[in-house]
Amino acid sequence: MSSILTNTSAMVALQTLKSINSGLAKTQNEISTGKQVASAKDNAAIWSIAKVMETDASSFKVIGDQLSVAESTLAVGVAGAEQIVNLLKDMKDLAAGAANDTADFAKVQAAITEKSNQITAVINGSQLNGIALLKTDINGSGGTDYDVLASLDRTSGTVATTAVSITVAGPDFEANVDVAGVTGVTDKATALTAVGDIEALIDTAIQGAATLGAAASRVTDQKEFVGKLVDALKNGIGSMVDADMEAASAKLQALQVQQQLATQSLSIANQAPQNILSLFR
Asked: Flagellin C-terminal domain: from which residue to which, for each copy (predicted)?
């Protein structure tokens, strides 16, 4: 039955054209934004997961920057500790050289005093951004440890995170490497006593330097891991929300052809009522 009031063919053609136009608009949006999931309405589940991953990636980027600062801070501490070990070695050599009756004890003691003063200067000067790892008060506020945020561990299925820090105990060279307590060299006997005093300080300094070196190695390893983690998160986000540009391009061309055909089909369907006029001629 033909009707001039209801054109079923035109209705079907119109719905088809609307569907094609909707798909075309979505594909064009994917190409223009480069994202298959650009907003929550595109895919709420994927979008929410991707946003959580984006916040994690951003946080880990900041953590990586802080670990770089910590790495430099520890490098300064290690350099200072190693320099102190060398200065103590020089002091020991001076004291050992004075363990004979022909030594000029006054000059030896003067040289040892200068080395001691240099050790004090190194302890005070081994600081970065207000963190002096070799002093008793590391941060100027009475702190004896140096903490740096290393990670934010997320519990599976929750939004809660747990902060994980790397804590570096200061070796406290200011108190433990007490060069002022070394016996003064005035004769052979005191020179030998000074050698024993300095040997004890060398052992303490070596242990402190080794502790800082181990901490520095851990911070470096964590920084490298965080950098790789950020890259992995970004790759994961991309695989979930980024558009496949090759597929989108092919789909766009197909939809453009379908749009042309659907438009032609609608035009033909709209001409159908005109054919009814021929029945009255």
From this structure: 198-280
pTM of the predicted model, to two decimals?
Answer: 0.77
Beta-strand relationship, 161-169 and 145-154? antiparallel
Rg over alpha carbons for the chain, rounded to the nearest Å, is: 38
CA distance 247 to 109: 82
> For residues 51 and 43, what is the distance between their CA atoms, to the nearest angstrom?
12
Q: Amino acid letter at 183?
A: T
Distance of CA 180 to the CA centre of its chain: 42
Ramachandran sector of residue 116 (left: φ over 0; alpha: ψ -120 to 50; beta: rest): alpha
- Cα(254)–Cα(27) distance, integer angstroms: 11
As a whole number of angstroms, the distance between CA 24 and CA 19 comes to 9
CB 173 within 8 A of CB 136: no
Q: Find residue 154's DSSP bridge partners.
A: 161
The kind and range of the H/E element at 147 are: strand 145-154
Q: What is the mean pLDDT of the chain?
A: 89
Phi-psi group of 141: left, alpha or beta (phi > 0 → left; psi -120 to 50 → alpha; rest → beta): alpha
Phi-psi map region of 213: left, alpha, beta (phi>0 left; psi -120 to 50 alpha): alpha
pLDDT (tens digit, 9 = 90+) per residue, 187-245? 999 999 999 999 999 999 999 999 999 999 999 999 999 999 999 999 999 989 888 88
Tell me the C-alpha distance between 44 and 27, whole Å: 18
Cα–Cα distance for residue pair 244/226, rounded to 1 Å: 28
Reduced to 3 states (helix: H, G, I; strand: E, B; else coil), residue 163 is: strand
Q: Are strands 145-154 and 131-132 parallel, antiparallel or unpaired?
A: unpaired
CATH class for domain 39-242? Answer: mainly alpha
